[in-house]
Amino acid sequence: MGGNGCFMAKTTLWVCIGKHCKEDGSKKTRNTLRDLVQAQGLEDAIEVDTCNCLGKCGKGPVIRIEPGGERVKRISGKKCEAFLEAAQTGTLGRFRKQ
Ligand code: FES
Q1: Which of 49, 73, 81, 85 stands 20 to 30 A from 98 (CA)?
Q2: Ligand 1 atom with least separation from CA of 61
Q3: Ligand 1 centre and the CA of 93: distance in Å?
């Protein structure tokens, strides 16, 4: 894949499914991200997995991006498409401020 190198190595999006993020809809976020990755043929570059509490409870769904370990907050199902695009193009800025 092309792009600016952001996703050159395999990236894992760890979606928190801890109690609070679950209440904030993180399972929908995980499912939506998985669907998008599949629909866009990004399986070789991006993996979507789940994890427990990322220490940002109340601001969920929270996602940790590896490598790097950056945590982004409030990625609801409807934001997934924009989030995935921003992650690929290195334009996550607006998601960092949430
Ligand atoms: S439950 Fe997701 S950050 Fe704590």
Answers
A1: 49
A2: 2
A3: 21
CATH of the domain at 83: 3.40.30.10
Judged on CB neighbours under 10 Å (0-12, 13-18, 19+), 45 is middle
How many structural domains are present in the chain? 1
pLDDT of 1? 45
How much is the pTM?
0.89
C-alpha to C-alpha distance for 45 and 14, rounded to whole angstroms: 14
Nearest CA to ligand 1 atom 1: 18
CA 50 – ligand 1 centroid, Å = 11
Residues 6+ apart with CB under 8 A from 42: 1, 7, 36
Distance of CA 83 to the CA centre of its chain: 7
Ranges of beta strands (E only) in the chain are 11-16, 46-51, 63-66, 70-72
